[in-house]
Amino acid sequence: MTGDALLVFHQPEICTVRWQKAAAAKVMFLSGDQIHRRAAAGIFSSEEISEQTVSEALYTAGCPDPDLLIRTSGEQRLSNFLLWQAAYAELFFTPVLWPDFTEEDFAQALDEYARRERRFGLVKNNERIR
After folding, report:
1. Residue 68 DSSP class
2. 61, 68, 80, 121: least buried by Cβ within 10 Å?
3. Can you give the pTM of this predicted structure?
4. Under a CB-based contact definition with an 8 Å cutoff, are residues 65 and 81 in contact?
5. Which residues contact 3 (CB under 8 A, 6 or more apart)?
6. How far, in Å, are 4, 76, 129 from residue 14 at the CA level?
7. pLDDT below 50 — which residues of the chain?
8. Ramachandran sector of residue 126 (left: φ over 0; alpha: ψ -120 to 50; beta: rest)
9. How far apart are the first and last CA of the chain?
10. CA–CA separation, 22 vs 3, rounded Å?
11. 3 burial class (0-12, 13-18, 19+ CB within 10 angstroms)?
């Protein structure tokens, strides 16, 4: 594992938070409301709303989007967690509950991630999906 990966595992408070569904939904609604209020105040027009303006309105602004999102507890859904930020993240699902998630479980997720081919919206022959 790299030093960066260990940093994320041992210090998750840097750019991640243990969220509840309501907290995740609140972020999405507040960011949308923040964009709406800025547009209504004339700070920018609706034509100026872009991926960047949405990203900058999220509470995670300034933190890089995740490359790997690990979902514990056997659930295979995001439950409103980092929906915008995880658009190109690789997803890893594990039946292990969060309190029981160990460095070995983390290493397994990283090993799985390392075997994947990341295409960021492209198909295998590097053509964009329309």
Report:
1. E
2. 121
3. 0.63
4. no
5. none
6. 12, 25, 34
7. 1-22, 24-26
8. left
9. 36
10. 32
11. exposed
